[in-house]
Amino acid sequence: MPEALIDRFGRVHNNLRISVTDRCNIRCFYCMPAGDVQFMNRKELLTFEEIERFVRVVVPMGVNKIRLTGGEPLVRRDLHVLVRKLAAIPGVQDIGITTNGILFSEQAQDLFDAGLQRINISLDALDPVKFQEITRREGYEKVVASIHAAKRVGFNPVKVNAVSIRGMTEDQIIPFGHFARETGVEIRFIEFMPLDADNAWERDKVLFASEIIERLSKEIMPLVPIGQRDVHAPATDFEFADGVGRIGFIASVSQPFCMDCNRFRITADGKIRNCLFSLEETDLKGLLRNGGTDAQIEQAVRASIAAKNEGHEINTAKFIQPDRPMFSIGG
Ligand code: SAM
Ligand code: SF4
Questions:
Q1: 94: which residues sit within 8 A by CB, 6+ positions away?
Q2: Contact predicate 89/52, CB 8 Å
């Protein structure tokens, strides 16, 4: 049995995020550029067979949790085929997806039947006008319909990711609190991170988790932490004091959780990244397409994990934003 993927700081990596495309059907301002986007050539994208082979190589090293992302993963409309392939690999315990929900309701049943277990749907505003302001596209109703479709099909829990942006989403905090209470959907507020294509991120634009907790607690009811959380989960979870409604926070900027990180990623064009914020990546596609052996793939993964930095440096003057924006890395 190969050794686990442990880095210089003792962090064990069992969690793989797979980006299946950089394309997207909306244009969230904190991720995509306002103007034209140069997407990867389709031939550059890893095929489902290549992804499956990679997963078969890393599972014996302890990887048991997978999340599919992008770009928008569901623009690859046969994604359920990949889910089925991955679910069949012995050792894969958990397959999730992060999607903007525009195309989800029509694929929900196929994905569920194929073995998808977890779903996070991204929605930053419970208001169609604000939705369009943020995403620069229409589609609010489709996303809301997808949240309900996810519940109907049987996903449990259903989580909604909401990026919190100062000067823009303050008025969504209380509506989301009520939405969590009324629907049983868990809302996870994510602090805006410096991964936007337009390089417009500033610390002043981050609406901090602590402020949201304070407002929800004051205006709805106190939030209490949910005990025994998975230390590796990026979200800190709370529920309202009466037990109705869960709210999570991914406070990457104000409370970095790098020392608990158990993740690594592959981009849609087949690069291994050991961190969202890393400035270097390791080529995987070349190995997959040019006769690389499983041992060479394993070696490439180990080299990437061995080179992982202690943490991101968003809060220091040393921080350098990666060249790839979020849609190209895979969030
Ligand atoms: N397109 C899918 C979606 O939006 O759910 C999956 C990919 S998206 C890059 C993954 C997650 O990253 C989404 O929840 C999105 O809101 C979040 N995200 C994107 N850019 C971000 C940023 N600059 N800061 C914080 N979260 C971001
Ligand atoms: Fe598309 Fe997701 Fe980026 Fe929004 S966050 S532009 S939905 S990839």
A1: 64, 65, 66, 117, 118
A2: yes
Which residue has the CA at smallest separation from atom 4 of ligand 2?
Answer: 28
The pTM score is 0.97
Cα–Cα distance measured from residue 289 to residue 294, given in angstroms and rounded to the nearest whole number? 12
Which atom of ligand 1 lies nearest, measured to the CA of 330?
9
* Residues 199-251 pLDDT 10s: 999 999 999 999 999 999 999 999 999 975 677 788 899 999 999 999 999 99
Amino acid found at 224: V
Tokens of 286: 């070349």
Mean pLDDT of the region 296-314? 94
Residue 131 and residue 258: Cα distance in Å, rounded?
30
Note the Cα 217 to chain centre separation in Å: 27
Q: What ligand is nearest to the CA atom of residue 202?
A: 1
* d(C-alpha 2, C-alpha 191), whole Å: 37
Question: Tokens 């790839």 identify what position?
Answer: 324
